[in-house]
């Protein structure tokens, strides 16, 4: 009780307090960890999501860079290089990814391809290598870049002159000796086939005539040196040499390289060389040779270009739609969640009803109504109508969680306006969840866009735009003959979905602070 | 009583939502121009008179000088009246623009297309549920062992591979390379014969693979959570063996969220998968729906839209209600 005698504390017990002695709170010596840094470190601990993120980056880079690197455009197509097999020059000497297919054929078919290589040195039978089994069947690899061989092409006189000039400048032979119309095959389907340049017997060309070395005998159209010819061939590139060849009668002969037609000439060209000439010399569109890393589609489009452009379109489209959905959904959900009560009830009904309309019906109705306008716009509106609702409900949930917390009450007491409370105090809490769901929405959007293109409800392949779904759809009808056509788009889609799934899981865990330290 | 009231309330909401959606669809459809396709050899007069009789158009006049037909469109509200009247008489309309189904009752065609869709989805559920649950339970029991890791990788792969690609793989490997099954489904109506069943199998596989992954993931997540809860420890302390405890306590509790999921899946499968149906040429409802869009046959479109909407809504309500029936602790709609 004696301590309570405050009134009579002896004076000497008091001392002046030195200000320096007052110990303030010590400054924290450890580094503060921000929310983002924390989330990042938690994300990095999850190996799967890091792998996912890396794959996503690679896919995005693929979509951004590749369309600039390939000389082809989406609208490019070629009538001869259709369903051309994928070829990678790194694998050219292996029997994988070399643009060739393994074939087993009888002698007639085999010689058809083998003779191509004999004539031009462009081997349709890979390296002219083959084996014959005991049943007389030929096993060989058919190069899909060379199997077109020769074609007849009608040129005007100017084009003809230009082509000959190209031959002399580059030293690459494009035009080969032509064949007299009467010597061409009599069967209708073979008449315009320029690859039958060799002698055959039998009514339906069933027997091939060989010379003593086992080679086919050409039946080129030739004329005696000194006699008049009207093929107008002035190029130095001649397979018989500058001086012609000596015929059986001891005279010098020259081959005929063109046949006059009413509008110009008809020449027999090697399509591989002609393709190079046409693209590098006439069109000058940057294509130096036929080289399709992922092969071509049934209509002759380059799959690599289509896939990367389609991917680019899908990414841009998905990000734009996700952003629009996020903004609209966030505003809608904020209003719902913050004001609650009657406002919430009415707005919730509206979004409820919209959410229960199957998305297929939304898209169909939109398509029927806006069939004339751009399909991209239809798709955009459809994804917007169905997409923002989940964003809104996420935001709404977060608002219900935070709006009655003490700090919000404190802010209100200090006189903060509604708008300030919404944007400054509550909304940032919802942002993490929203960004995560945004990231997860992107693959599902690409997936549904793919399904819709596949089902043919939306047709995005116009001009220079295509989509992954269109490619898969185009590939399915060639599943039996050219499975690679659907392989590459499918592979892209699988990688995309897989990496986004892994990435999304990691992101969700990373933004969830309650998991802090749970792995350790 | 809670339950009864809650069910009634949900049903009321369902009907209301359904009516609003259908009204929206109807209006939007009727705002479109009427497609009148007169094939060669058909009498245009009959077609226009049919449309007039169905209450779509009125004042049909043929101008023989210009050879053009002119008509007025009936106001949408009036058309809605006619439509409702006909629906209550059980008449859902008649096929107009699809050559296959022209002048046939829409409802009959719809019922004819239901069996393949339903069968394929029922088969896939019958295969998918046991395998999925089994895998999930196994993975949960072997948590963080190599078996669990293998199953987890399998699950994430299957979930990530889109159904289009899955279908393509199944078609390529089983139908084309191995030639175990025909490439597409057989035509005909004898659904319960062996060749028919065999031709359905690729589609069934493609469908059930992804649902297996879904079930397995969900079961594993639920079961691992239950297995770590305290009443499991109590059950073991009481003297139950691990098997007994898992079967009687953990599994029953884990089934609470799983069972409604299976139920809603089962309802949702009625609507089928448009992609799979297209890929394997299954003559089902999905194909009919796609065709009705392509050929703009509005009676088909209305019926099928209604069907899809109803299935979606029903799946939601069944899920919610079944929670209450399975677990007496959950009282739906109670405050």
Structure commentary:
The complex is a heterodimer of chains A (520) and B (335). Helix content of chain A is 48%, strand content 10%. Chain A has 520 residues and is an alpha+beta fold. In chain A, strands 4, 5, 11 and 12 form a 4-stranded antiparallel sheet that branches. A 3-stranded antiparallel sheet of chain A has the order 1-3-2, covered by helices on one side. Chain A has a 3-stranded antiparallel sheet with strand order 8-10-9, with no helix packed on it. In chain A, helix 2 (47-69) packs across helix 13 (484-510), helix 8 (359-369) packs across helix 9 and helix 12 (468-476) runs antiparallel to helix 13 (484-510). The longest helix of chain B is centred in the middle third of the chain and has 36 residues, at 106-141. Chain B is mainly alpha-helical. Chain B has 12 helices and 2 strands, in the order H-H-E-E-H-H-H-H-H-H-H-H-H-H. In chain B, helix 1 (2-30) packs antiparallel against helix 12, helix 4 (106-141) crosses helix 7 (194-227) and helix 9 (242-268) packs antiparallel against helix 12 (298-326). Chain B is elongated. Chain B has helices spanning 2-30, 44-53, 76-88, 106-141, 146-160, 163-177, 194-227, 230-238, 242-268, 274-279, 285-294, 298-326; strands at residues 57-63, 68-73. The A-B interface holds A 352-353, 356-358, 360-361, 364-365, 367-369, 447, 450-451, 454-457, 469, 472, 475-476, 479-480, 483, 486, 490, 493-494, 497-498, 501-502 and B 17, 20-21, 24-25, 28-29, 31-32, 156-157, 159-165, 168-169, 171-172, 176, 271, 274-275, 278-279, 289-290, 293-294, 296, 301, 305, 308-309, 312-313, 316.
